[in-house]
């Protein structure tokens, strides 16, 4: 449905064309490398490698290709749990290097405009989601007189800092477990310790703090700063 909708939206759009279609995340990364499109319109739920993993693969490869996530199951943010899921999903996309995030119900004209914006080097996030995220960021910004943000990390162990870096990059617990060669249960324990020590409500706040303290920077594919 998403692919058909994309083709219909681009039909007749001057200067835009679909140059390839992938059936899974691994194929998406391969096609991006071979075809070098200006923009890859990425779905989140994909076989073999999900959309966030594929986005990271494209971004970290240094390709001159930008990623716009247009998900068929964008969370609507109903209730506290829904809002948390929506926020984490969008921040995960941003941390992975995506330049845009839209739902499948975006009007064709807005989709075309978003693709043009991303291709030109800009960023696009659905207005409702962006508004909520800005409110969340405002809640987390330090006020005058607060201690330096970096001091907040002093109580973390080296492994907990590693886990925080992975969380900030949008990695799932399963992906972190593979990267650190530990079990998912161990990762969950570390994440819990990080949230408790830093007095954070959820992973969204952890992502914001990691960027705010300079532990990780947008597009940074290396390890934590020393």
From TrEMBL:
Under Gene3D superfamilies, the record lists: 3.40.50.2300
Domain HTH luxR-type residue range list: 149-214
Record keywords, A-Z: DNA-binding, Phosphoprotein, Transcription, Transcription regulation
Checking SUPFAM superfamilies in the record gives:
C-terminal effector domain of the bipartite response regulators, CheY-like
In what residue span(s) does the Response regulatory domain sit? 1-119
**What domain of life?**
Bacteria
Quote the Pfam families the UniProt record gives.
GerE, Response_reg
Give an example GO molecular function: DNA binding
BP terms from Gene Ontology: phosphorelay signal transduction system; regulation of DNA-templated transcription
The record's listing under InterPro entries reads:
CheY-like_superfamily (IPR011006), NreC/VraR/RcsB-like_REC (IPR058245), Sig_transdc_resp-reg_C-effctor (IPR016032), Sig_transdc_resp-reg_receiver (IPR001789), Tscrpt_reg_LuxR_C (IPR000792), WalR-like (IPR039420)
UniProt-recorded name of the protein: DNA-binding response regulator
> What are the top taxonomic ranks of the organism?
Bacteria, Bacillati, Actinomycetota, Actinomycetes, Micromonosporales
